[in-house]
Amino acid sequence: MIIQPTLRLPRHLFRSADRAARCFSQSAPARAHKMPELNHDKDMRRDGIRGLYSPDGIAIAWVEYHGMLLNKLNFMTAGGEEENWEPKKLLIHYARDPTNAAIFNLASMAWNNHFFFKGIFRAPSPKKKDDPPPTPPPMPTTLATTLASEFGSIQTLRDEFLATANSMFGPGFVWLVKTKTGYNSSFRILPTYMAGSPLAGAHYRRQPVDMNTQNGDSAASLGLSRAELGKMGVPTNSVGAFGAQSASYAKQPKLAYGGVDVTPLLCVSTWEHSWLRDWRVGGVVDPNDPDGVVGPTGKENFLAAWWDRIDWKVVYDLMQDSATSRQGSTNNDRAFAFNRS
């Protein structure tokens, strides 16, 4: 006797199963998303980044973690048309699709983490261990003048930026961005939590429920019926202005309505894998005041050391390109191509 199962699964789950089936059907799936090579990559992996990362710290924060993101991204996209899409294109595309939140999170995190490391100054390792590490070049005068005009002084920018990053309770990134609003532009400090993206195209994201963690039973605890869960992410018609199935989709600008178009110039990661290995927790509890901590924490020390290793030439180049790009543009200029992969 054959027993027929009575459980009905939401349609979007079959789509996820289909992705997995495509992966296993390939004996040796192509690795479309490969580990990017940073400048002086071999020196960095062997010796770390003096004053910021030990070799073990680089292995965790860059080699292993970023490799894990790309491996999962290869698995999730294998066999589909998007397997050759760059992380930036993936994250913007799936920002509108709550049933594929996992792809958005992986692509966005890969884009963010790559941006973070590409903004750190790296140079060939000193020939002798006792030699001081190479010093990053000074901030270009034009950039220094512009930022000082916006924030009052470079010291004020530093203090505000690091205070914002240190006060983030939980993982994420803190960005220095330049807004693009016609003839006027300004600089802002922007925090994003978890794998959130600063890119304007990702601000369409509307995902009240993480579909990667839901099934019929768990959704019920959130007040969703099985029918409602099954409909999430499934289009009902082509009317309206939003969504990949809308009739006007092709005509929509990349900039979300009410959103602000920005060019990311600089970011720092507050994820613990980015700093905990080398900088530890830090801080000392005052025995006379159990609620007080004496001395800077490991996170504070890491942020201060990171600021001293910023490659301001990279920031300057991105700022210059943002001045010539159009609002909502995806031109293949340096600011766009800086972190396409």
UniProtKB/TrEMBL annotation:
Q: What is this protein called?
A: Manganese and iron superoxide dismutase
Q: Where is the Manganese/iron superoxide dismutase C-terminal domain?
A: 142-200
What this chain does, per the entry, is described as: Component of the mitochondrial ribosome (mitoribosome), a dedicated translation machinery responsible for the synthesis of mitochondrial genome-encoded proteins, including at least some of the essential transmembrane subunits of the mitochondrial respiratory chain. The mitoribosomes are attached to the mitochondrial inner membrane and translation products are cotranslationally integrated into the membrane.
> Which Pfam families does this one have?
Sod_Fe_C
- What is the top-level taxon of the source organism? Eukaryota
The protein's matches in InterPro entries, at most eight in alphabetical order, are given as:
Mn/Fe_SOD_C, Mn/Fe_SOD_N_sf, SOD_C_sf
Taxonomic lineage is: Eukaryota, Fungi, Dikarya, Ascomycota, Pezizomycotina
Q: Which organism is it from?
A: Lophium mytilinum
Q: Which GO terms describe its cellular component?
A: cytoplasm
GO molecular function annotation = metal ion binding; superoxide dismutase activity
Q: Which PANTHER family match?
A: 37S RIBOSOMAL PROTEIN S26, MITOCHONDRIAL, SMALL RIBOSOMAL SUBUNIT PROTEIN MS42
